Amino acid sequence: MKNIQIDDSLGIPKYRQIINSVYQAISNGELKVGDKIPSLNQICAEFDLSRDTVMVAFNELKAKGIIHSIPGKGYYINSVDVNVNERIFVLFDELNAFKEDLYTSFLNALDDKTTVDIYFHHFNFQVFKDLIAASAGKYTSYVIMPATFDYTADILSVLPDDKVYILDRLKPDLEKYPVVYQDFEKDMYGALTAGKDLLTKYAKLVMIFPGGKEPEGRMIGFQKFCNENKIQFEVLRSLLNRTIRKGEAYFVPSDRNLVRLVKMAAEQNLLLGEDLGIVSFNDTMLKEVVAGGITTISTDFAEMGRRLAQMVKDRSPEKIANPAALIQRNSL
């Protein structure tokens, strides 16, 4: 059969010989992008193979992006880049400065025979669902960031269990998958405890918690710390109509609210770190220099990316908590 060779005398699995045959035909220039390859039924009949054996070969070729299928027509060459060993699907919630740090670190920790396609669901459940469905069978690994979405196990069931990795949040219904995550409640409580001497000089701690995409664990850790240490606190949904006062320290997840708070402090001649405290989340280079330096509670996103890459490379089944810390600067 043209382009497919099977030798029963070789100690190489038949499905692997099919894959190698396609690779060889591409390398020799016999198969080009858009060319049709022999059908599953043709290969089964020619070499007396089971459909399962041929499907294993076809599925691996699809996962590496070498072939794709057109319903009712057959399988066609999609790429001639046979040097790619891994093809990874990455689904983030959104792109921002710290997610870019994570992604860049992830890419840098992979080898040059790995390609990565990144997509964003922007907290839209239908987009999340559609992107996962469209990716099924086309990649060797899947990195999924469910973010605020719960009960997504059925959606992920279209993907191979041993090729899925969860990122950023630990979800009870996805406990069978490996994960690199942030423990928001524990990290918040731990960071506040580490900065207790700085925080107790303020009359009140105020957390801006708008809900939505923000992790509830942060608010729970904040309330737990304040209650246990008998510190006066307040949780607000927004800064709208808020009058800031000397002796308050604000915890702001939104960078927009961070800028607004810095501006409000300047307008009232309140000195950051003395009259008013500010703590932001998710450290970036910009926060090192804004207003003389903004104190943050943040995980190490570069380390998170490296750990994720190692997990994918090792096919590790681990569940790894990526810890956060208080990074103290001028604003506290």
TrEMBL record:
Asked if the keyword DNA-binding belongs to this entry, the reply reads yes
The reply on keyword Transcription regulation is: yes
Q: Which GO terms describe its molecular function?
A: DNA binding; DNA-binding transcription factor activity
Limits of the HTH gntR-type domain: 12-80
Q: Which domain of life is it from?
A: Bacteria
Extract the SMART domains matched here.
HTH_GNTR (SM00345)
One Pfam short name: Peripla_BP_3
Recorded hits in CDD domains, A to Z, give: WHTH_GntR
Q: Which InterPro entries match?
A: LacI/GalR-like_sensor, Peripla_BP_I, Tscrpt_reg_HTH_GntR, WH-like_DNA-bd_sf, WH_DNA-bd_sf
Keyword list (alphabetical) reads: DNA-binding, Transcription, Transcription regulation
**Protein known as:** GntR family transcriptional regulator
